[in-house]
Amino acid sequence: xxxxxxxxxxxxxxxxxxxxxxxxxxxxxxxxxxxxxxxxxxxxxxxxxxxxxxxxxxxxxxxxxxxxxxxxxxxxxxxxxxxxxx
Length: 86
Description:
The chain is α+β, with helices and mostly antiparallel strands.
């Protein structure tokens, strides 16, 4: 069974603010699963997002963009991809 991370866990793992995390979900394609008022991120979705974002693939930016104005991602975000135990 796949593990789901709380938004707080994701923020602590990556050392980012709440605003950055929500910007990534709104503009950069980080997938969040919501059930009512509870939001979680699948480990596999987080790993895939970080790999896309770190490599600077345009899809990491434009995929989640609502208005499609963002076209390019940064080449490096300064965070390492966490390795999760299986």
